């Protein structure tokens, strides 16, 4: 597996993978600190393309001033070994200066779908995500790109951006969401789980448990507001410091729903345990994922 750290090396390496434009390239964008969830993305990518390009870039633009940019785990050599073992052809691992030279002034902002949920709690976060993913798409020029459904709002934003800016053809279908990979006790895999103490790690499993209970209630007709309030209370009773949001939303637009309708819906929750913010989401009403 080749590791490209500059755009020139990347361009030549992508051209070499796809002589005369032949062969499909899948991109798996990551911030490193890889776990089974990321490796699942690579495996799905290999099933759907001839070559997999992964990127590792801890993107400063998506971290707020009081967030964990400095502490975010960086383990390039270990991550590269995992990607190579999964059959990844090329790793794009630019420096911050390569991605954002001093002259860089552009911001990509996706209105509406970025505003609520994590967008409300983390101002600017999704602009940072959209900006870097737009650059990654242009740099690698993949045929498809794969993202975990764990970051469900991020996935919706990237789909909207790809559609609006004609980034990958055929746009929406080229952005593939892969179901969340979970630990044995149901906790969604995340690079941030490593910040949890053993006690917090045990308490964290209350989040998916409370979500499953809430979904069973919603699907058997329980009122949405009461169900979400009970979910929040359960999670806090289990040891979470707070719940940023617990929302039932339309699965496509992420517009909050006050009642379950016939269409696919999604339960999305963010909570804080110690200093760590965990997010999760699950399908409601027979929707996928
Ligand atoms: O989901 C992530 O790891 C990041 O938000 C992404 C998509 C790689 C952009 O930095």
Topology of helices and strands:
Blueprint: E1 2-4, H1 7-17, E2 25-30, H2 36-48, E3 51-56, H3 76-85, E4 90-92, H4 96-99, H5 118-121, H6 125-140, E5 144-148, H7 152-164, E6 175-178, H8 198-204, H9 206-219, H10 224-237, E7 242-250, E8 265-273, E9 276-284
Parallel strand pairs: 1-4, 2-3, 2-5, 3-4, 5-6
Antiparallel strand pairs: 7-8, 8-9
What does this structure look like?
The chain is α/β, with parallel strands linked by helices and 289 residues long. The chain folds into 2 domains: 2-178, HUPs (Rossmann fold, 3-Layer(aba) Sandwich), CATH 3.40.50; 191-282, Pantoate--beta-alanine Ligase, Chain: A,domain 2 (2-Layer Sandwich), CATH 3.30.1300. The protein has 10 helices and 9 strands. It has helices at residues 7-17, 36-48, 76-85, 96-99, 118-121, 125-140, 152-164, 198-204, 206-219, 224-237; strands at 2-4, 25-30, 51-56, 90-92, 144-148, 175-178, 242-250, 265-273, 276-284. The strands form 2 sheets. The protein has a 6-stranded parallel β-sheet, sandwiched between helices. A 3-stranded antiparallel β-sheet has the order 7-8-9, with helices on one face. α3 (76-85) links the parallel β3 and β4 (90-92). The mean pLDDT is 95.
Q: Show unreliable segments.
A: none
Overall shape: it is: globular
The first-to-last residue Cα distance is 31 Å
CATH topological fold name of the largest domain: Rossmann fold
Specify the number of helices. Answer: 10
Outline of the structure:
Helices cover 37% and strands 19% of the residues. A six-stranded parallel beta sheet has the order 1-4-3-2-5-6, sandwiched between helices.
């Amino acid at each position: 597996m080749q590791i490209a750290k500059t755009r020139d090396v990347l361009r030549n390496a992508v051209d070499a993978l796809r002589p005369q434009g032949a062969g499909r390239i899948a991109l798996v964008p990551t911030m490193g600190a890889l776990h089974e969830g990321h490796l699942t993305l690579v495996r799905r990518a290999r099933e759907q393309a001839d070559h997999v390009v992964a990127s590792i870039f801890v993107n400063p633009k998506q971290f707020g001033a009081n967030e964990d940019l400095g502490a975010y785990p960086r383990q390039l050599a270990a991550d590269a070994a995992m990607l190579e073992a999964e059959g990844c052809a090329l790793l794009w691992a630019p420096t911050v200066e390569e991605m954002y030279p001093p002259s860089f002034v552009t911001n990509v902002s996706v209105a509406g779908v970025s505003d609520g949920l994590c967008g409300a709690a983390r101002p600017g976060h999704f602009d940072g995500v959209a900006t870097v993913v737009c650059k990654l798409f242009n740099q690698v020029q993949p045929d498809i790109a794969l993202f975990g459904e764990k970051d469900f709002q991020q996935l919706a934003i990237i789909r909207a951006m790809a559609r609006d800016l004609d980034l990958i053809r055929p746009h929406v279908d080229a952005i593939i969401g892969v179901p969340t990979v979970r630990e044995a006790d149901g906790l969604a895999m995340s690079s941030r789980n490593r910040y949890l103490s053993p006690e917090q790690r045990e308490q964290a499993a209350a989040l998916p448990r409370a979500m499953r209970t809430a979904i069973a209630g919603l699907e058997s007709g329980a009122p949405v507001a009461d169900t979400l309030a009970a979910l929040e209370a359960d999670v806090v009773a289990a040891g979470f410091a707070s719940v940023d949001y617990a929302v039932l939303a339309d699965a496509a637009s992420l517009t909050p729903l006050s009642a379950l309708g016939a269409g696919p819906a999604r339960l999305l929750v963010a909570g804080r345990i110690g200093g760590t913010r965990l997010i999760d989401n699950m399908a409601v009403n027979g929707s996928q994922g």
